[in-house]
Amino acid sequence: MGSTTAGLTRQWTTWGPVVAAAGLAAGWGRDLPGFAVGLIALLIFGAVLAAVHHAEVVAHRVGEPYGSLVLAVAVTVIEVGLIVTLMAGGGGEKTATYARDTVFAAVMITCNGIVGLSLLVAALRTRVTVFNAEGSGGALATVCTLAATTLVLPTFTTSHPGPAFSTAQLAFAAVASLGLYAVFVGVQTIRHRDYFLPVPRPGQEGRESEDEHAEPPTLRQTWSSLGLLVVALVAVVGDAKLVSPTIEDGVDSAGLPKPVVGVVIALMVLLPETLAAVRAARRDRMQTSMNLAYGSAIASIGLTIPSIALASIWLEGPLVLGLGPLHLALLVLTATVSALTVVPGRATLLQGGVHLAIFAAFVFLSFSP
């Protein structure tokens, strides 16, 4: 029975990304009817589940924190392509705030939604969940610095009208973001890798976890999963691009604010990280969940802003990066609460609930500012 279940899992996680990619190829450049949009949404969900499975296979082979890094970087690289494609396709004032809205939504989803849900799941199982304060604290500091440099400072600079950088300021922010991201990856994977490894509970230091005890996948299986992971992520983001016109039309018809589009698409794109983080939390590997959440936020800013800065050379229209007062308040609240959560290196149900409350406020105020 177990081998049959494993065989079925391998089958659907293999053809799921392929079918989603086929749907992307069939629908690209076309106006989709309602039933096709619904079908694409189902394909996105299947591809997300497959992506999580293949990311876990790769993570089991390479170990932490490399496994978390693979998923975070893969999703973010493709997300950058989606943002540039949408900005190039729309152009002008309509897409001036698209990069800002999507990056800020990613920060709020990762730092509050993913972290809060993971803490809640882990605390429900173990009452008190533990993680490495040094690694998570350094990652959080990197997120806050990147967010302040790229999303806060443009609101207060005076060299360029509006909440936007001048050309020189944008170039500085891009280089600083990319450099800080590179330093973080070096610290996470080489110099202080032990800061980002799961923390054993007292009395369990010498015991192997369930993941460590299981036989790692072969090199062939790892490369196969890595390839299917990329296919699944391309399909998720590409299919999100296909349904985005329907989302935009729905937002316009309902009279909702434009940032709602960025929020909805960011939620879809970040589904793989969310599911992977929650599954890690259920296994009492909260540090892996933290790596996924903060690593995704760092990659989202550190890779997106330099790419958008480079693309702005040929993209038409302004590039607005500065946050408004409402989002600034949410960012400050997120940074403060996250620091109080991370510093002790342990958390309970309360911390998870607080982060989810902030995330709920962000989503609600995006629809009703």
TrEMBL record:
It holds the Pfam family Na_Ca_ex. It is a multi-pass membrane protein. Keywords: Membrane, Transmembrane, Transmembrane helix. The keyword Membrane applies. Its main location: membrane. It is found in: Membrane. The chain crosses the membrane at residues 12-29, 35-54, 66-90, 102-124, 136-156, 168-187, 223-240, 260-280, 292-315, 321-342, 349-367. Residues 38-189, 225-367 form the Sodium/calcium exchanger membrane region domain. PANTHER family: SODIUM-POTASSIUM/PROTON ANTIPORTER CHAA, SODIUM-POTASSIUM_PROTON ANTIPORTER CHAA. This is Ionic transporter y4hA. It comes from Streptomyces roseicoloratus.
